[in-house]
Design brief:
alpha+beta; Thrombin, subunit H; 6-stranded mixed beta sheet; 12 helices; 24% strand; signal; Glutamyl_endopeptidase; Secreted protein; Peptidase_S1_PA_chymotrypsin
């Protein structure tokens, strides 16, 4: 099958990102340096409650891997067999079996073999938003420490081409029991592999169903998706490089928090405050790292600043629920407030924003010492799409990140 990956040209590897005017300009993301931040290098392991996906996906070069087939390495095949899953059945479409007894749910159970050519442009266009909608009732318990609901902020379209203006931001595709779904994600730096990161930050609910489910499948990240912001009609005749200028990047390792795995629900639930995840990805074709290919990546800010002291934040993503269709990148900028779902849970950030489902997992950015860093990700929002909320990223999130970097980053 035809791959949609086209190598980035040298010119595209020197892009500045999220460049704009006014307040957005303050959030401009420049092409990355070749080392992590001093804060990250000094960070210790912390008291992690994070959980990692172990023994991730293989590639399409395994035994008997022909065109359009899955080549499953022996270690992954063995683990599938341990769960009572027939490897041949899996290769022939058994991954579509979402029976509760065969839905891999534990942190150590993550598998995501590459299926080259699976995510064709038409399949991408048919994927639906992964939505986490809350109601007034869901947020009433913590109103004593929540700030007033913010005024809606109308999302604005990012300037095209995205590889010039928002190269680290992209779209995540995956398969779930409900069908093909979409989220958003961000290329982040890898402190232990400077300049050669293969890490992507997103939401936990974009990779794992939470307490009543398991790991989603066929998880792929597409940076700068639909680079020129074309309409669905225009995409019918678009060159593949316009849809995926840096190609498809399959998650071969995944980590999300124990808080999400144990407490996440269809409306976020108790897991919303821990709704973050890190992917380690590999190209569907080629061997160059994601950061080298895209030309940019962001540091993550794990200081969990109080909302009143955080300054302005910007959220970027690909909203897919009406009135949006998931084909274009949007952004919102606002001063964050606090959202408390329960006195027993960490406070979340909340900003006014009209982005809908599909923007889930998209990065929130703020300026620290003149440098733009990822500080949160989109997790939940109300049914009327007037605001978004994201988790604070503290010691547990840092431990999850460092474990991914140290254990899987060099693979």
């Amino acid at each position: 099958m035809r791959s949609i990956r086209t190598p980035a040209t040298p010119q595209r590897r020197r892009r500045t990102v999220l460049a704009a005017t006014g307040l957005v300009a303050a959030l401009a993301l420049t092409a990355t340096a070749c080392n992590g931040s001093d804060e990250e290098r000094a960070a210790d392991q912390g008291g992690a409650t994070a959980s990692q996906g172990a023994d991730g996906a293989g590639d399409s070069t395994g035994d008997n891997a022909g065109e359009g087939e899955i080549g499953i390495p022996s270690d992954i095949a063995g683990r599938l067999e341990e769960h009572g899953i027939d490897v041949d059945d899996w290769k022939n479409g058994g991954w579509k079996n979402w029976d509760k007894d065969k839905w891999l749910s534990e942190a150590k159970d993550f598998v995501n073999p590459v299926i080259e050519g699976l995510w064709k442009p038409e399949r991408m266009q048919s994927a639906k938003e992964a939505d986490k909608t809350v109601t007034t009732k869901d947020t009433s318990a913590g109103q004593g420490v929540s700030d007033p609901e913010p005024a809606p902020v109308q999302a604005t379209a990012e300037t095209t081409p995205y590889h010039d203006n928002a190269a680290p931001v992209g779209k995540i595709f995956f398969d779930s029991p409900e069908g093909s779904m979409v989220c958003s994600g961000t290329v982040i730096k890898d402190v232990n592999h400077p300049g050669k990161s293969n890490l992507v930050w997103t939401a936990g609910h974009c990779v794992h169903a939470g307490q009543n489910g398991g790991w989603y499948r066929n998880i792929v990240f597409v940076p700068a998706f639909n680079d020129l912001g074309k309409s669905d009609t225009e995409l019918n005749d678009a060159d593949p490089v316009e849809i995926a200028p840096y190609g498809n990047w399959w998650a071969d390792w995944a980590s999300t928090s124990n808080g999400w795995i144990e407490g996440g629900s269809e409306t976020g639930g108790a897991g919303a405050a821990y709704d973050y995840a890190v992917l380690h990805v590999q190209p569907e074709q080629g061997s160059t790292s994601l950061e080298e290919t895209v030309g940019a990546a962001l540091d993550v800010d794990f200081s969990a600043p109080a909302a009143a002291e955080a300054g302005s934040m910007g959220a970027w993503g690909y909203p897919a629920a009406p009135p949006y269709n998931g084909l274009k990148m949007f952004k919102c900028l606002d001063q964050p407030g606090r959202l408390s779902l329960s006195p027993a849970l960490p406070t979340m950030y909340r900003i006014g924003c009209t982005m809908t489902g599909g923007s889930s997992g998209g990065g929130w950015f703020r300026v620290v010492d003149g440098e733009t860093r990822l500080v949160s990700n989109t997790s939940i929002g109300p049914a009327d799409n007037t605001w978004l909320a994201g988790p604070q990223l503290g010691q547990d999130a840092r431990a999850l990140y460092r474990n991914m970097s140290e254990t899987y980053g060099g693979r």
